[in-house]
Amino acid sequence: MPAELTFAAPRGAKPPRHLADLSPEERSSAVADLGEKPFRAKQLAQHYFGRLESDTAAMTDLPSGVRERLGEELLPTLLTPVRHIDCDDGMTRKTLWRAFDGVMFESVLMRYPDRVTLCVSSQAGCGMNCPFCATGQNGLTRNLSTGEITDQVVASARDLARGDVAGGPGRISNVVFMGMGEPLANYRRVLDSIRRMTDPVPGGLGMSQRGVTVSTVGLVPAIEKLIDQRMQVRLAISLHAPDDELRDELVPVNTRWKVAEVLESAWRYADTTGRRVSIEYALIRDINDQAWRADLLGRLLKGRLAHVNLIPLNPTPGSKWTASRPEDEREFVRRLESHGISVTIRDTRGQEIDGACGQLAAAEN
Q: Would you name the residues annotated as active-site residues?
């Protein structure tokens, strides 16, 4: 039997228009342009966001003669799952998605006793070039559309609601933009997708803004724009080093916006929203895990509305970067806590399924 053939759109083509790309007003206009009554847009949105249904053939409240056309024009297939890989007794599931043009990216669903968190991608690849990151090693292919970002959530929520994930039917409570890509480098589409997630049904999925976390390496102008939105999403700063000398190497965008400037912007976000900022710090053996760097980080954060999330590095094949020794990790935590800093160590889920973002897509490519 010949190998399965897949056909991709020409490079540079735009994703097809999708209901999730549009505001409620734009949906009504789009339906009217198709010669249908504008209220059909609300019916479509009720199915997609409220019932997690994308197949117009199942939307029996729509006239049978218009279902196929409305589906083709406003609910085209955006994402095709290439594979699901499970671990943690099925409580962690990574999905590799293929978009209309053949590009691939990932999301990870993580089920805990008290919550379900979905980690989504905002770009195919990433242009930030952080040397220890699997996604950064592959470069940026393109931004994802609002619909492509949102559809990761809707598709995962559908599987969860239907009991296709271990643990029985459930609901997504948290979405974190910590998958492939730098979210604030795709600012408008990420912001629009957050609105689709958090606007009440049928405008969106009706999730709480407080359940959404946006991670950034520190694109200061975009953080300032986010401050102006007065949203209640959590901001996470991927810091990884408290000193500019090392951070210039680990997070190359630091040559543009230094540690002090990034943190000043983060504190403005915290002061405006009242929400604690998460400081993401991947512990890398003999690189950034020295006790004196923990002390320096503690002094930078002392008295601020901040929490440190230490991340044991998930090494990528052939990389010189690896996780810290357990004793160094413990001392790093102790030093931070001695400065009165709240610290947690991220759950190291997914290592056996290429848990670091970008590893599965890289392997497939």
A: 106, 357
